[in-house]
Design brief:
Number of helices: 7
Largest sheet: 2 strands, antiparallel
Number of strands: 2
Shape: elongated
Order of helices and strands: HHHHHHHEE
Mean pLDDT: 77
Helix content: 55-70%
Distance between the termini: 50 Å
Structural class: mainly alpha
Low-confidence stretches: 152-183
Strand content: under 5%
């Protein structure tokens, strides 16, 4: 039996409780093991998206402080809520043509896609909590690829045609003419 100690004895109930508490505690903090890339890459990208162009240094530093607080003192739900807000910000800036915003959008999408993919391998409910965001990020990434390559298909985020969250897509704010994708 796997519950037995060497010599065939059962461990004391307090030992089992301590082991269980450690396992639960490890699962609760496991999300922190996948935060280094977002901590490094997201502050500038999100500050750029929020500013709609090149951010000032104070905006980048504010994002750095916010992320640091969330990682060091926050819980996974607050961290995931912050990342969900980041996905919403990416969607809101989808039609912005500023090259810095476009670059920041690409960085943020790739960092968040990677982070949420890594969540799938962690204990706990993080993978279930990020399922919607993973879908949103895949739609955003597909739409960006379609616009970049000029390929056919809908460039929609969240459904519809050639729009991102209700805003026209494409150059000059005009909706791109595309064929619908049959799913």
């Amino acid at each position: 039996m796997r519950d037995l100690e060497p010599g065939g004895r059962r461990p004391h109930p307090a030992v089992r409780l301590v082991a269980r508490a450690r396992a639960v505690g490890a699962a609760r903090g496991a999300w922190r093991s996948i935060t280094p890339e977002p901590e490094r890459e997201l502050p500038r990208a999100l500050a750029t998206l929020a500013a709609g162009g090149r951010p000032d240094d104070s905006a980048v530093q504010a994002q750095e402080r916010r992320i640091q607080r969330l990682v060091l003192a926050g819980r996974s739900r607050r961290w995931l809520a912050y990342l969900s807000d980041a996905v919403s910000l990416i969607e809101r800036r989808a039609a912005c043509e500023d090259p810095e915003v476009a670059a920041a959008r690409r960085v943020a999408v790739e960092v968040l896609r990677n982070h949420h993919s890594l969540m799938l391998g962690l204990p706990g409910r993080g993978s279930a909590r990020t399922e919607l965001e993973r879908r949103r990020l895949e739609r955003i990434a597909a739409a960006h690829e379609l616009l970049r390559t000029g390929g056919g298909g809908s460039a929609a985020v969240g459904g519809g045609s050639a729009t991102f969250g209700g805003e026209p897509a494409g150059a000059g704010g005009r909706a791109a003419r595309t064929k619908p994708v049959v799913a």
